[in-house]
Amino acid sequence: MKKYVAEFIGTLVLTLFGCGSAAISGGIGGELGILGIAMAFGLSIVAMAYAIGDVSGCHINPAVSLGVFLNGGISAKDFVGYIVSQLLGGIAGAAILLCFISSSAGLDVATTGLGANGFGEASFARLNMGGAVLVEVVLTFVFVLTILGVTAKAKTATVAGLVIGLTLAFVHILGIPLTGTSVNPARSIGPAIMLAFTGNTTPLSQVWVFIVAPLVGAALAAFVYKMVCKTEEA
């Protein structure tokens, strides 16, 4: 249970601080801008990696758990337990963020949103659905491949949290104007569900892209890692 609780907490923190930074700061045109929001997501990973990494491995992302599972890193039981914990954590993080915004006289969820992902009119770049799928597959592939590589050897374990966090920030810099950057179904599902309670159902109607595409990207990353990158030492 400690592993599952750790994954719940980690995903909650990632969703709250990452999506919260995007929503409360005013988005791309706000005070933080693309780089600031990207760093908020990346630093959330760094913090949680060193807080819960020894307990659960700090996946805090169903796509990461899928990649690790396909690479033989966790059992089927833990894979299911991780997914459930991550989804609950993402919903809880989004619920707390909604409470923060709803409690503020200077913020309005209708204008700030909750850092939800989207395409079409919900995309800053007005990216179409096919483009959104491609973006999320590619960004998740890069992210998960990096995780599989940096966690494979003991000599890189001490810097893994930092490398993974910086990689998450790196993919966000490109992805934020396009889809808001998911690469994480739990991070997308939480805000989509919470926004539906406020009457905005667009993110929930589009969330399937941000479930399917990251999982496809993660599966591709696991395959490529096994075929190309994995060494006898790993």
Q: What structural category do the secondary elements indicate?
A: mainly alpha
Helix content: over 70%
Please compute the radius of gyration using only Cα atoms: 17 Å
**Biggest β-sheet strands, sense, barrel:** none
From the coordinates shown, what is the CATH architecture? Up-down Bundle
Q: Report strand %.
A: under 5%
The helix/strand order is HHHHHHHHHH
- Measured between the Cα atoms of the first and last residue, the distance is 28 Å
Question: How many domains?
Answer: 1
Describe the structure.
With 234 residues, the protein is mainly alpha-helical. It has one domain: Up-down Bundle (Glycerol uptake facilitator protein), CATH 1.20.1080. It contains ten helices and no strands. Helix 2 packs antiparallel against helix 7, helix 3 runs antiparallel to helix 4 and helix 6 packs antiparallel against helix 7. The longest helix has 27 residues. The model has no long low-confidence stretch (mean pLDDT 94).
Task: Give the tags.
globular, mainly alpha, Glycerol uptake facilitator protein
Can you summarize this structure?
With 234 residues, the protein is mostly helical. The protein contains 10 helices and no strands.
Present the secondary structure layout.
Elements: H1 2-24, H2 33-56, H3 62-70, H4 76-102, H5 109-112, H6 129-150, H7 160-175, H8 185-197, H9 202-206, H10 209-229
Helix pairs in contact: 1-2, 1-4, 1-8, 2-7, 3-4, 3-6, 3-10, 4-8, 6-7, 6-10, 8-10
